[in-house]
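Annex B, item 7. Sequence and structure tokens for protein A, then protein B.
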Amino acid sequence: MKALTWHGTKDVRVDTVDDPEIINPRDAIIKITSTAICGSDLHLYDGVIPGVKPGDVLGHEFMGEVVETGKDSTLEKGQRVVVPFTIACGGCFHCKSQQYSACDNSNPVEKQDMSATLYGQPMSGLFGYSHLTGGYSGGQAEYVRVPFSDVGPIVVPDHLDDDKVLFLSDILPTGWMGAENADIQPDDTVAVWGCGPVGLFAIQSAIVMGAAKVIAIDHYPHRLELARKLGAEIINFRESDVREALMEMSGGIGVDAVIDAVGMESHGFAVDNMIDVVKQKVGIGADRASALKQAILAVRFGGKVSIPGVYGGMVDKWPLGAMMEKGLQIRGGQTHVQKYTKDLLAKIEDGTLDTTFLISHRLPLEEAPTGYKNFKEEQDTWTKVVLKPGMEKAA
């Protein structure tokens, strides 16, 4: 089959690889109908995530049709399913606590040492995202093997087309959990750093959850305009001092909650960020956390900090004093996707949430390298790329 594979920094290719097979009784094989490039895929593309090997199949946002099942799978051939990017067994302590992204059993034992050394305990399994998380082949392919298929995939009705439900796989629940972790109260003012896909869904979710005011921070005009259309007020950090603007917009005390939807590759020309860029390029610092540092300094005393953006390593000059002296609550983590999919599917069906506004480009799988390049370099206009295996190339 054809699949998008990683070969090095900014080098991804569509190769012919082996078809997936049923390995365990709970497995299913999915024929991919839609698969998206995620902002966190760009961390792999940029070479800042460790544990990726040449030939690895990328992609963790995907959906499709069930074509084969193991004897213990609860899926049936022909069903349309969306597959969470987090792989979870459903039976361990964390899964039973709905902490699916902390599953004890989905990362094979032989893959656990590196993440256990980095984080104290091994990570759970994720599709298409480095051997730290199991080395599972991803869904930017014609077919994919789905382990624990009786736990993760959600069956979607035929009257909802792919564009409406594809993002249940990751970015919609990630934005929703990002807003939920901000513990939003009805009078809250919430600031969101980053108007990429997760940031825009965090903005939409915060508004649905009843925030009095949501402020979006970015520097791409089109992405800021999308945030404005969702109901947010906006700050272009190229044109305004973000902290001064937030103080003014929050009555002089700071915003009640902040959401960092940027993660480990902050943009901007702040001195700390420029130093982190150099460190990241020479391999002595893994994360550029300028946006998160700004968020911690901007939130009010007793405020709430939510981190849906991805971080992988260490951060220099962490504002630990501000965190302690201001009495902040900080929450983050990979998304417990399975916890949210059923409720979010209902919100899509009743029109509470719209996901289709985000898609800027649909491409055949064969054009995935172009999709990665432009999603990286043309971020203002390439807001979300959906790959369609079998789609005809444009003339």
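Protein B:
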Amino acid sequence: MKTWDSIRFCTGSLSGYPLRTSLMLLAMAIGVAAVVMLTSLGEGARLYVTQQFSSLGSHLLIVLPGRSETVGGPPPLIGETPRDLTLEDALALQRSSAVDLIAPIMVGSAPVAHGNLTRETVVLGSTAELLPVRNLVVAQGRFLPEGDIDRAEAVCVLGHKLKAELFGNDSPLGGFVRIGQRRLRVIGVLAKKGQSLGVDIGDVAIIPVASAQALFNRSSLFRILVQATGRDAIPRAKNAVLEIIRERHDGEDDVTVIAQDALLSTFDRIFKVLTLAVGGIAAISLAVAGILIMNVMLIAVSQRTAEIGLLKALGATGTQIERLFISEAAMLSSIGALFGLLLAMLGQVLLARLFPDFPVTVPPWATFAAVGVAIGTGLIFGVMPARRAARLDPVAALSRR
């Protein structure tokens, strides 16, 4: 039997039972679409988290006061507090050639008032270097001025939400707000940024770090953000930070340094494993679709007994009959996989419109894996019906026994 004759035979068999064929195609299409969609959601979650962390800045080290450690014996009767990080510590980090920029951070909460409007919000104290270190963008005016880090200038930069609450559609530039008991001139407004380090950047007031020390009446820093000179310089910058702080804190290792790249690689590994896991779970539906194909084709063999007997009476061998039924299963799987890919594409378009900020991206391997598993499943589960058809006796088959 020629290839074209086999294709015509399989096409005629499938079109002769439209309801049965449609159900098998639907099952295979849902399985393939589920694999593609779930893996694209996992990949999208990985890209979303990576983008959020990358927006914190590049080649970033975060220096925190205190160090996690395990100690033996009974707990101390008097609690110990880690040594504070100070502005002098931050300035000392600039001695390292692996450090490009440093941005000391002080965080507090205070009422910010303009006219008769008052809003309790987060106040960040930092320096001009916070702008490039954190990849912030100024929408209006300018950022904190460069200069002496100990100079407490009476200026501030507002987040876009805070500006809208206090000034509405009016320009805040040159106007004054009262933060706590201090009167500060507004010199800039930040562009939309979203969440960062647990703080909504749109709802903050950023003031010079020396002004924040005077406002909150303390000298300890919340964090020090350190930008290394490059990706390769991150380990050298981390060692330099630990060494400088140890030298300044009488030989004690009382700070924790977190590398942004280490966090990124950890989240990357976690989400890749999750993507593979959900893809594997979805692939189970393909196995279910394969079982459905096997059951329906076994029924088809019993319904087409006379047809098989006629083929054998005309000279078709058992191998040719077996190939015809396996080809029919392969055709069903391939067409179902194609419909599944189209269904997944529609789902991606719908998700992209509903959640425009969420990157729905199909991993390159997912499409090939879904189609390969679908066709492989159809072939494996099509073997049994094909062998049963090939073993039929032509005389018994023609007599429908």
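Comment on protein B: The chain has a mean pLDDT of 82.
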